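User: I'll paste a sequence; please echo it back and then give the predicted structure.

Assistant: Echoing your sequence first, then the prediction.
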Amino acid sequence: MGWLVFAFGVWAGGWWLNTWMARLPPTRLTSLAVPVLFGLTLIAIWEGVVRGLEISPVLLPAPSMIALRFAASTAILWEDFVQTVIKGALSGYVLGCGSAFLIAILVDRFDFLRRGLLPVGNFVAALPVIGMAPILVMWFGFDWQSKAAVVVVMVFFPVLVNTVQGLTSATAMQKDLMRTYAAGYWTTLLKLRLPAAMPFVFNGLKIASTLALIGAIVAEFFGSPIRGMGFRISTSVGQLALDLVWAEIVVAAVAGSAFYGAIALIERAVTFWHPSQHH
């Protein structure tokens, strides 16, 4: 009962404090403090409810238990992080996004590619990763190369479609102005159309950043060496080691958030002129 009272008190106090802070003038400190406080409140409520209702760790471990397992398994978590995030997700992300950007330039240059490739891209983008992953694992083997291949397929078409759309975002007046300066195709592309396309490109890159990590983890369910986040999650569930599963989920969440945040910071530096950055 004491833990349930604790959970209720944390909920009431967190609600009041978050409401009070949300009314403060928006600053960098308050914009950071509100979500951090909200997250800590949820963790404290989770701890109190699990302990108060005596929920089995097999069903839902308490945050304190997850933290202890995290601290005791840093070597395993780091090895899995390198295998899944660095080797699988990041390498596939770079290859997929880089090739998509180059193909988008060709699609913009040659109209028959726009008519032929983009419909195929929309079809492939709709394919579920759970259907593609086993095939690519059989093609490229059980190590990180097959996971990178899955990531390439997942991130390629979102970046391609967004980049092609961005290359058409320059207005007719802007294009006419470039023509009055006798600018050719490549000059117009580099000086006008690519800068105008950057918000669209970064939108695709941010979408792809979440897809990359999901694809790499899911691909490991269908074959992997004895390391990797997907491998560890699937085997730990079979062993009923749910605290290790949640520790892997924490690592994935932190890595995904950091990846997305890094791209958003680069976007802010590159597209500082865009109205979306003026807030």
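The chain has two domains: 2-55, 70-277. The longest helix spans residues 74-109.
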